Amino acid sequence: MHTQSIPQFKKSLINLFLAFAVIASLALGAASPAAAQSGGPSDPAELEAYLDGVMTTSMAEHHVPGAVISVVKDGQVFFAKGYGYANLENKVPVDPAITLFRPGSVSKLFVWTAVMQMVEQGKLSLDADVNTYLDFEIPATYSEPITLKHLMTHTPGFEDKTQGLFIFDPAGMTSLEIYLKENIPARVFAPGQIPAYSNYGSALAAYIVERISGMPFMEYVEQAIFNPLEMNHATFRQPLPAEMAGNMANGYSYSNGKYYQGEFEIITAYPAGALSATGLDMANFMIAHLQNGRYGEARILQEETAVLMHSELNASDPRIDGMAHGFFENEIHEQYTVSHGGDTILFHSLLLLLPESNTGLFISTNGSTGDQTVQAVRKAFMDRYYPAETPALVPTTDFSSRAAKYAGEFYMARSNYTSMEKLISAFTPVNVTIDENQQVIVNVMGQVMRFVETEPGLLVNVEDPDMQVVLKEESGQVYLHVASPMTMAKAPWYRTAPVSLLIFAGGALLFAISVICWLVSFTRGLIRREKRPAAARLARLAAGLFGLVFLFIIGALGSAFMDMNPAYGGMPNIVFASPPWMDSVLKAPLPLAVLGVAMLGFTVLAWAKRLWNASARLHYTLLTVFAGAIVWAMVYWKLWMM
């Protein structure tokens, strides 16, 4: 099977597991300062010429097959255009009026709009325990209940779960009710404490709308949002209705000079990301929100409700941007914006609203690396039409007293904590170092950003001052908070990637060499008819079996994670479904534990009875130490099915 390179695999992991994280603020394709204008776009022809240049360059650089852009201003569609192809094989161009794209998590804005409709009707309270509205119970892990406000700001405290979120066989699709009841995530943070992006939380809110309205969420949205906004080509239905399927843009991944076409991505937690819509459909949605709920003669929200929805609901710190009622809020070039990004594996999108200038931008791409083009357009648009002077950054004078807290390895709070998916966080670290200029260097899988501390605990990006990070310490745990709900937690030494690599890779190498050497020694002993103590033979047999079982586990897990699908950005197939043999592999650590205990006993015996010479005893002791570390790591990283 053709696979992508390891760097490409790492990029795929960033796209899936670090969506909306720090890396999303990296920007490309900045406009020339000399060409910058102010006050927003004023001439559609000029905007088209400008975006044509940005799109041509970025799409070619990042191998993006097709894209759609729509810009609205003052209640009208200001500009809409398709770029490239919806279907590469048949050279079908993108048409903003009829070509469907997958906006991914931009879908969540329809969930939150539906919630706010229910709130203004008095049918929902944002402060009530969500269990009040459910026919099943979210476990009371913490004394504080989860509310709709927590769901809207991604602070319910749920762990993340990726496996099974995407499927490709419609037969595997269940109802929203069944999905939610069978996939309740662990609660790992107290509500309101740590922002950690949650697809489950958004789907849960949609189910509450479903229960209160008495109709499936997809039907509710059609009646309460799509129809009044004349979004005639928008749907949450999976697979697509027959009359829409022919207009769906294909999704592609590019590898080694070739495009691979992917299948239609079915999202099991469908309200969180399953929307299909055209660029002009999304333009109507932007117009309605920019006009505080009004579209033509129709109204989807009362004005006061829409104003509330666009206002801040939660922020980790007063010095950084936070969350509105479902929207991300950011100040970009001194402009207040509310937005939401969206990523499936193959489609990448952004909806950006500037309420003060009554302007909105939507872009969606149909390539697995399209996120780079999305960010290029966002930055180019803001740099040209809303330019601002770069402020001078004045470093703090006592930074050295806090430098040690910044430095180290961090992991995303949006991680899994109770299944083998937890291991992903070990090998997708965020590394933070301090350079000779007292700048804080943040490295996300090779993507590097530089920050200066301008206030105690406040970092400002040197190249993009609109991006800020706050350092906080809570109950002995150090966190880095960003504007998006993608908090980073500082890893203890035993959770860091080097320690995990030492245990797993170092242990595999040590046991592999030992087993080979012992087999050679055993064969030589048979030939020479050497007699060796039974205890010594049993000791090496126990260690040898430990090594073979461990190597089997490592090999099986390695083959599963390296079985990459080129049609989905080199994403491992295990993301979509576990191999049928995985349960057996996850039961293998049990004999490892038994053999590890046996090795410990033989280590004591070896030193007490002097079974071998000193160097051989030290070698066996080292193997036993590694065996203990391996068993601990298997348990810690949830590679153990009891």
- Quickly give the structural class: alpha+beta
* Second-tier CATH architecture of the largest domain: 3-Layer(aba) Sandwich
In the CATH hierarchy, what is the superfamily of the largest domain? DD-peptidase/beta-lactamase superfamily
Main sheet summary: 8 strands, antiparallel, barrel
Spatial shape: elongated
Estimate percent helicity: 25-40%
* Assembly type: single chain
What is the count of distinct domains? 3
What's the total number of strands?
Answer: 23
- Helical region count? 18
What does this protein look like?
- The protein is an alpha+beta fold and 642 residues long.
- The chain has 3 domains: 6-17 and 48-273 and 280-368, Beta-lactamase; 399-491, Lipocalin (Beta Barrel); 497-636, no CATH class.
- The protein is 37% helix and 18% strand.
- It contains 18 helices and 23 strands.
- Strands 14-15-16-17-18-19-20-21 form an 8-stranded antiparallel beta barrel. A 7-stranded antiparallel sheet has the order 3-2-1-13-12-11-10, with helices on both faces. The protein has a two-stranded antiparallel ribbon with strand order 4-7.
- Strand 19 and strand 20 form a beta hairpin.
- Helix 2 runs antiparallel to helix 11, helix 15 runs antiparallel to helix 17 (589-609) and helix 15 (534-561) packs parallel to helix 18 (614-636).
- The longest helix has 32 residues, at 497-528.
- The chain is elongated.
- The chain starts with 5 loop residues before the first helix and ends in a 6-residue tail after the last helix.
- The model is unreliable at 1-34 (pLDDT under 50).
